[in-house]
Every structure is written in C-alpha cells, then in structure tokens.
Amino acid sequence: MWDYTDKVKELFLHPKNVGEIEHPDAVGEVGSMVCGDALKLFLRIDRATDRILDARFQTFGCASAIASSTALTELIKGRTLDEALTISNRDIAAYLGGLPREKMHCSVMGREALEAAVANYRGLKAPSAAKEGMVCQCFEVTEEKIRKVVLENRLTTVTEVTDYTKAGGGCGSCLPRIEELLREIWSVKPTELPREKKKLTALQKIALIQDVLEKEVRPLLQADGGDMELIDIDGHRVIIALRKMCVECPMGGVTLQNIEEKLRELVDEKITVEAG
Q1: Identified catalytic residue from 35, 62, 138, 249
Q2: Which structural domain range is residue 134 located in?
C-alpha cells in the first residue's frame, strides 16, 4: 500500500471541483485510460483579463491522480493563464504534502493538462499532443516530454524517469534509450547535475542558509509583493515568518514548502521549515 499523506487521502475521498463546465472556454485532455491514467481539465476564463474563474476536472486513475487533479484546480483558480503556467508539478506535489516517488507522474499529468487547456484556449497545438520522437510506446511518452521532465525535476536515473513519466514501466524495451537520453541531457548541461554536499560546520550551515534565503528566495517573493523574515535556526529547523503580501496569501503553506525544498537541495536534505 502506498504511503499517502493525510492531504492526499482527504482529497481522494472528498475531491473538489469534480465534473464538467458547461460550454467551457478551454479544455485540456491528457493521458489514456488504456495507459492507466487520464485527465480532462475544463476552464472558465475571463476573456478580458485571461483570469481563470473556475476549473473543474474528470479523471480516471488512482488516489494520487484524483488528489493531484483537485490540487491543480485549487492552485490555478483566480490566477491569470500566465500565472497558472508558472505552477510546476512540484508545486502540485507540495500542495498535497508530497507524493510517493512512484506516483509523481500524477503531478506531471496535472501540469500537462493545464498546458493543453491553455493551448486550446489560445488556438495552439498542445505540447503533449506531439507524437514525434516517441520513446515509450506502451505509455506514449515522447523524447520531448522526457527531456522537459528530467530538467524540471533534476532526474538522473532511469527509475526516476519512470516514476515521473511512466516511460519504461511497460515492456521495458525503451529503457536503453531513456538511459541514453539522460547521458545526453546532463552532458549538455553538466552544471545541472546534483552535486555532493560537503559536510558543513554549524556556522557554515547558518551562513549558507542565510545566503540561499537572500539570493534564491527573497527576490522571488519580493517580485510578487511579498517578503519573508528569518526568525531562527535551531539545528535542522529553520523558522521563517512570511511578510507583506505573503501573509494573507492562501498559498503560504506551499511557499514554505517550496522554501524547504530549496534549502534541502542547496544546504542539507534534513532541513525542515516552520512558520514563525
């Protein structure tokens, strides 16, 4: 049995925004019931502002797929299309308090459905509709999709690619090609390869945390009218208070989770971030 968070269980048993929108302004459809997961996203959009007024979905899949679909619709409602497109599959997973590694493809499917709906609204071809460069015939996963997901999520192993895209999870004949793609991707962008973190002293860790918050986190918050304040560092616990626009933002919990993810990536994987 998968180790689901309480949030995933809640939104699986009591999903929100299920169903169709009558005469929707945009529809995005991804996946296939033959492959095991499918999602159809409906959007109501204010054409004067491109703001999403309502979002609903129909999905065929597991608990993670249903919960991820709810998370997606909750995250994008009230945002403009361009703002919604900044939401990554990691944001969807963070909203749910995390997903089992083997179920991360459900968050990727949500992101793809949003891209397909926006493309539909703008009269463009959905990125996921392209069948050129098919790598995995079993789950209809293209080379373009693998490259995109690998770079966005910093994937370095074939197993991770399968967890995030399902590619290689069927007959397995595409596994050598996936491994080849990983070598190509990271040889082109070697700076993206995860680096082994050196052991830091307590003072070095504090200084690095402060540096990451000032250079990587604060500018992004300030760009949206928000801010943050470092309250305390207690071992692996980092206590942060959100300021300005972030105080009233319903995405505050997701913001703290994103900060935690950034600190774990760049400083120490044991770090936890708490609201102060």
Answers
A1: 35
A2: 130-192
Enumerate the H helices of the chain as residue ranges: 6-13, 63-76, 81-84, 89-95, 104-121, 143-153, 158-165, 175-188, 202-212, 218-223, 245-248, 252-266
Total H helices, total E strands in the chain: 12, 8
Q: Quote the CA–CA distance of 96 and 9 in Å, as a whole number.
A: 9
Is residue 1 assigned to a domain? no
Q: Please tell me whether residues 215 and 261 are part of one structural domain.
A: yes
Residue 174 annotated among the catalytic residues of the structure: no
**Position 230, amino acid:** L
The torsion angles phi and psi of 38, rounded to 5 degrees, stand at -150, 145
- What the block records as the tokens of 226 is 């928000």
Q: Which member of 106, 136, 174, 246 is catalytic?
A: 106
Give the chain's length: 276
Given 141, 173, 192, the domain boundary residue is 192
Which of 8-22, 134-148, 203-217 is most confident?
8-22
Distance CA 221, CA 231 (A): 17
The per-residue pLDDT for range 28-39, each reduced to its tens digit, is 998 865 556 789
Verify whether residue 106 is a known catalytic residue: yes
pLDDT in tens, 157-188: 999 999 998 888 877 889 999 999 998 888 75
Q: What angle do CA 211, 217, 223 make, to 5 degrees?
A: 130
